[in-house]
Structures are given as structure tokens and as C-alpha cells.
Amino acid sequence: MGLVSALADWDWGFVQRLGFLDGYEVYASIALLVLGCALVAAAESRKSG
Membrane-crossing residues (predicted)? Predict the structure, then answer.
């Protein structure tokens, strides 16, 4: 959702509320997306192993 709100110039979302990320919303959203995927992959590997 962070990427959609950053690209559509909406004014809501978690990343937009953090003042120190002004100008870096897209990069922060991508980083959160990658982190979320890595956490899901780690949880899945622990569950199956």
C-alpha cells in the first residue's frame, strides 16, 4: 500500500507519517516489502524444517 500511496500522491499510510523519510517514501516502501517477504520466507522455512 505504501508504493500505491507514494506513486498516486495520496497522503496516508505508514511511511508517509514518518517525517524523516520525506522524499524516500518509495524506497522505504520497497524496503518494507522486501523485509516482509523475507520474514514470510523465514517463517515458512522454519515451519517446514
Answer: 26-43
